[in-house]
Structure formats: structure tokens, C-alpha cells
Amino acid sequence: MQIMDLGTGVVVLLWVFFWFYSVVDTRLVHFRQQPLFLFDRSFFLSFLNQPGGVGKYLDLFFYQFNAWRGVGALVAVLLAAISIFLTHKLLVDFYPIRIVSVLHYIPVALWLTFDAYNVDSIGLLNHYWIALATVIAYRKTRKWPVVLERILWLILAALLFYGWGGTVLLLFLLTVFAAEMNEQERKSIGILPFLWIIPAAGFPWLASRFSYFMGFQEAIGGDFYPLEETRVAQWMLFLIPVVFVGFSSLFKAAWRKVFPSSQSSPAMGLALSILIVAATIITGFLTFQPEQKASVQFHYDARELKWDKVLEAGARQALNDRK
């Protein structure tokens, strides 16, 4: 079963590479977004004057590699692999390994549905795995004295908000809260985890209250996406760990009803592997907009002086659609 799980992961990551190399083409993403990144001290320091600046700086660092299609696709594979690994590390405390082997691919499958030409998809996955890494690190302190543990909670919350903004902070707080309320040995502390969310969640309010350049909506990550419909997809991605951890008992009960046998047969493992790969491929193609790629490709070819391709693309457009 381990070999089959490893094979599934390799196939999924190969598909991520193909998706960004051939279907999306990271050169077009770079051309559409045109991010500016400089290895310059003053450029770096300009991101430290507001919450979320460190995350934006790292996003731009990764985005510059999209200018080279192969390198950009490899960066996408790296971020996808990190996200899968960290999702696995978090969920393995709450689910049998067989269930985790299915669930840990869902964030990446959802990620592939985002509009890479108009959305900071790299930034989204960076924010996702940073929050998960912090949750996993924090959960290593479960045997610490409660006071020390909660002090670390506040320190991590402050660092996350300053470095990556309100979205990552909320994902961290809600995931830890869901985990503690779901663990049997933590239930005795009752409402205490919720009470500790209040001071930590106050960082966005403080930033909006005492900052002249940041409103409350921006402080909690409300401007992460410029479009309303993509903001929904953003929160779907960020709430996946919260839902999987908080409702693990329901998911495990549903799994036992669908697969009542306690032993995972090779046939079931193969079927699940095929289902994972198929779902990852299908979700991407269902939401991909080829006409948007064609529009970006047209302007990219014009900039590169590839006039034969420009004329060929223009000839395929309807007479009333010569934008």
C-alpha cells in the first residue's frame, strides 16, 4: 500500500508539472502579472512596514521563476509537494493513514482550479503551507505547561500576522482551536481555547485601528483576491484543515460506512489512487478557461514579435470580437 501511495503522489506531482508547463504555461502567468522582484536591501525593507509584507516578498520571489516555463512548473511542484506533506503531517494525528492518503491531496486539487492568470495562486499556496507548518510546530508543545504554551500561542500569532497577514493568522487560530476541541484530553479545559483566540485575533483590529494605510478588511485578508468569486475559493482552501480536523469524527464514521472492512485491500487502494488522480485532473479542466489563455497568449506573442502567431490567432477570432 505504501508503494501505491507513493506512486499516486508521484503521478499527482507529475500532473501539477504538466498543468503549469503545458496547460497554463507559467510564462503567460508571468507576463499577465508582471511581478517586480529585486535582490536589493531597500526593496526588501519596503515590505517590512506593514503586516503581511514578508509573505508578499516571498511570493514575489517565487513568482519571478514563472518567466521560465520549466522552472516555474518545478516551483509549482515544490509548493504542491510541501502542501501535501504538511497536510498529511497534520491529519495523521486525527485519521487512519488510509483516510489521510486521500484527504491530503484535496488542497492541491482545489488549488489547480484557481485562475492562475489573474490570481496570486502561488501566494495562496505559500500562505496555506506557512499556516500549516506553524500549526504543526505549535502542536509539539502539547505537553508544555499551559501558561508557557499559551504564551507561545500569542507569540506565533503576532509573528504570523506581521509576516503573512490576517488570513494566515485566522487559519492558524481556527485550526489549533479545532484540534484542541477535538482531542479527548483537551476537552477538560472547556472554553479556554476559545478565550485564547480572542486576544490573538485582536491583532488585525489593532493594526486597522492604529495604522493609517490599512483598514480592517485588508487586515483580515479581505483584499487577498480582487474578485468576489475568487475570494470564496480562497476561503475554501484555507478552511480545509479546519473542517477536516474539527469534523474528523464524522469523516471517519462516513468512511467506515463506505468501507466497512478494517483491512484495506490492494484493489481498494488501486481504486482510490485512480480516483485521486482522476479528480485532480478533472477539477482543473472543469474550471480552466481556454479563451482567457488565448487572450493572454495573443498579447504575449505580440510582445515577443511573433507576428505569424498573432495573425493566426486573429484570424480565428470572430469578426465582432477583435479585441
Structure overview:
The chain is 73% helix and 0% strand. It is mainly alpha-helical and 323 residues long. It starts with a helix and ends in a 7-residue tail after the last helix.
Q: Helical amount among residues, as a percent range?
A: over 70%
**How far is it from the N-terminal to the C-terminal residue, by CA?**
53 Å
Radius of gyration, in angstroms, nearest whole number: 22 Å
Spans of 5+ residues with little confidence (pLDDT < 50)? none
Number of strands: 0
Tell me the number of helical segments per DSSP (H or I, 4 or more residues long). 17
Short characterization:
The chain is an all-alpha fold and 323 residues long.
Give the secondary structure arrangement, pairings included.
Blueprint (H helix, E strand, L loop, with lengths): L1 H23 L1 H8 L7 H5 L7 H11 L5 H23 L5 H7 L2 H6 L9 H18 L7 H19 L1 H17 L9 H19 L5 H4 L8 H19 L1 H11 L7 H22 L2 H14 L3 H10 L7
Helix pairs in contact: 1-5, 1-15, 2-16, 4-8, 5-8, 8-9, 8-10, 9-10, 9-11, 10-11, 10-13, 16-17
